[in-house]
Amino acid sequence: MRFTNEQLERYSRHIILNNVGVSGQEKLLNGKVLIIGTGGLGAPAAMYLGAAGVGTIGLVDADRVDLSNLQRQVIHRTRDVGKPKVLSGKETIRGINPDVKVVTYQEYATSANIKDIIKDRDYDFILDGTDNFPVKFLINDACVMLKKPFSHAGIIRFQGQTMTYLPGKGPCYRCVFQNPPPPDAVPTCQQAGVLGVMGGVIGTIQAAEALKYLLGVGELLNGSLLTYDALKMSFRKIKITRNRECAVCGEHPTITRLIDYEQKACSFDPAAANT
Amino acid sequence: MTITINGKQNDFEKEMTVQELLSKAEVEMQEYVTVQLNDEILSRKDFDKITVHDNDRVEFLYYMGGGK
After folding, report:
1. pTM of the entire predicted model
2. Which of A37, A140, A159, A204 is the most exposed place for a label (fewest CB within 10 A)?
3. How far apart, in whole angstroms, are the C-alpha atoms of residue A178 and residue A137?
4. Closest of A275, A269, A243, A71 to residue A153, by C-alpha
5. Quick one: closest CA in A to B36, which residue?
6. Assigned fold of B2-61
7. Which of the pair, B34 or A263, is modelled with greater confidence?
8. Do the chains contact at A192 and B66, CB–CB below 8 Å?
9. Does the residue A196 lie in any domain?
10. Is A131's CB within 8 Å of B6's CB?
11. Which structural domain range is residue A117 located in?
12. What are the residue ranges spanned by the domains of chain B?
């Protein structure tokens, strides 16, 4: 692949890095990352991956931009209120870096479509930026079944957590959290609130995981759960192990088909369900 | 005895089951917490069978569902 002068300049701070160089930047430009949810986590992740020159970025979100999103979802602008988030996200990414091809999926990820979406461009890495347990478990199960690496994350109030699944190399999300909690047992950001920067901190870590995966450098958060407490300003990297009896990635999986778990009854608003 | 809970040392008078520790440590939403004892994730059905000992390391791992 031949870089244009403009690309050499745009990516010069990457190219100068020992672990990246021209060949690493080429890997990024050939890389394909799917971001499910363009909200608090997905917004910063998409912007950094776009700026980094990840060649293909898929955005999945059925939602439209709401005024209450703008306190943290930095990919959207005030003028975008009412616009589909995937379109607003695409415009921002393309504005940052026209090298990037942005593929939009204005729909909810469900058992019926998630595998097709992942297979659509044969994405290399999937990033979970969703805000509810049914979809978080759906992403986990689909990635385990399709043997795709993905980054899980969750944020609430002043806290966040993230882990990375690499097929055959450590635990999946279900190894640690066996099943979704019952609807409404664990609060969502909508119910409990979230400090705007939480998505920035954790979503950016997810983007770093995606970049390292594409580059093939460093250690990833497979086998670790990274937790962040903004009030105490403490990060903890907790070692987690694979559960051989895991229902989806264990030795004798009992989950062999994708499951659409019940949404929270009180807030099942299709427009808000996914991200 | 000393048990390290989520990276912090805690002193307790005597050994107890994981279930008792959940109460003693005032863990919120006990029915939804994942418990890891010395790097091994425990099955919920064993919480009242497994005893924590001096110098054990316990991690309470919580669901975090937000992201939007």
Report:
1. 0.94
2. A204
3. 9
4. A275
5. A240
6. Ubiquitin-like (UB roll) (3.10.20)
7. B34
8. yes
9. yes
10. no
11. 31-272
12. 2-61
